[in-house]
Amino acid sequence: MFAQLPPGASLVRHRDPYAGSVRYHLGLVTPSSPRCYISVDGCLYFWRDGEAVMFDETYIHYAKNTTDVSRIVLFCDVERPMYFRWAAALNRAFANIVLRAASSPNEDGDRIGFLNRAFKYVYMIRRVGKQLKAWHRPTYYVVKWTLFGSIFAGLVYAL
């Protein structure tokens, strides 16, 4: 896909949980400035037109664009090389399932994957959690661990 990082924008520190691929960015339209960068595991890289950056997205990473120019990159996930054929086949099957479930529309008529639809509700819950945490941290942790405990108990009971 193509990814834009507008002037003044940033992506928060995060790591992607799926280790079946590595991430590839090809600079298409970039500020070519150290003020528009990605930090991966503490190492800074900045995009340049026609140059590639490949990184392991399971490391903590974030991006910032403090220039007045949008950064546009070709953004690809490249299958991580696997030593065993059975591991590569399992990785491909898992990726196909996850990619279908996480798909988002690019054109009219494109389907929205289950994970993408569910994220809307997860995000609403997360936002309420952040507000509760900002209001009163101890209450936030009591609610959080009560919910986790209830989910765990429900799973154990269901088995």
Describe this entry's structure for a reader:
- This protein has 159 residues and is of the alpha+beta class.
- It folds into two domains: 2-84, B-lactam Antibiotic, Isopenicillin N Synthase, Chain (Jelly Rolls, Sandwich), CATH 2.60.120; 114-158, no CATH class.
- The chain has three helices and eight strands.
- Strands 1-8-3-6 form a four-stranded antiparallel β-sheet, with no helix packed on it. A four-stranded antiparallel β-sheet has the order 2-7-4-5, with no helix packed on it.
- β4 (36-40) and β5 form a beta hairpin.
- α2 (114-135) crosses α3.
- It is globular.
- The N and C termini lie far apart (41 Å).
CATH topology heading of the largest domain: Jelly Rolls
Structural class: alpha+beta
Order of helices and strands: EEEEEEEEHHH
The helical percent reads 25-40%
The total number of structural domains is 2
What is the mean predicted local confidence, pLDDT?
A: 90
What is the approximate shape?
A: globular
Topology:
Elements: E1 2-5, E2 10-14, E3 21-29, E4 36-40, E5 43-46, E6 52-55, E7 61-65, E8 71-79, H1 85-101, H2 114-135, H3 137-158
Antiparallel strand pairs: 1-8, 2-7, 3-6, 3-8, 4-5, 4-7
Helix pairs in contact: 2-3
Question: How would you concisely characterize the structure shown here?
Answer:
The chain is an alpha+beta fold. Helix content is 38%, strand content 28%.
List keywords for this structure.
Jelly Rolls; 8 strands; single chain; four-stranded antiparallel sheet; 159 residues; alpha+beta
